[in-house]
Design a protein that fits this description.
This protein is an alpha/beta fold and 160 residues long. It is built from seven helices and six strands. It is globular, with a radius of gyration of 15 Å. It comes from Pan troglodytes.
Length: 160
């Protein structure tokens, strides 16, 4: 799903940096599905963060629960005030509320977002349901509404 979301963002003019804990997956992705695109890769979290424009917008697509918290814990020391972490793993709303509160105290904005439509939706237009620290919305709105599915009138299937 992550690869398809990255390709969707690329198709809509956004430059994306791909990272996976299994570095060979990034290498394979760049050599195959993302070949000829503007997608860039990173071999480490530190490298990924260094390649992102501020405010950094980082989408996590990991299993809901402890894995999200573990990843956030690794990311926070690398981020600056105003950076944004987006959980695209359909986490439980109480976890999103807790993460919003805890990260805001550190100056980092958190968004929890449902991503509906499966792998094909991720590639060609998911329904996105973001919520969390509303101050993040102006920084992600163009991306989210750009890649989202559209209804007949062209209205994106995404709003705060």
């Amino acid at each position: 799903m992550g690869q398809n979301l990255i390709l969707n963002m690329n198709d809509h003019g956004f430059v994306v940096c791909a990272f996976n804990r299994t570095v060979s997956k990034v290498d394979d992705f760049l050599a195959n599905e993302a070949k000829g695109t503007k997608v860039v890769g990173a071999q480490s979290l530190k490298e990924m963060v260094s390649k992102l424009k501020k405010p950094r917008r980082i989408i996590l697509l990991v299993k809901a629960g402890q894995a999200v918290d573990d990843f956030i814990e690794k990311l926070v020391p690398l981020l600056d005030t105003g950076d944004i972490i987006i959980d695209g793993g359909n986490s439980e709303y109480r976890d999103t509320t807790r993460r919003c509160r805890d990260l805001k105290a550190k100056g980092i904005l958190f968004v929890g977002s449902g991503v509906s439509g499966g792998e094909e939706g991720a590639r060609y237009g998911p329904s996105l349901m973001p919520g969390g620290n509303k101050e993040a919305w102006p920084h992600i709105k163009t991306i989210f509404q750009g890649i989202a599915a559209k209804v007949g009138t062209g209205e994106p299937c995404c709003d705060w």
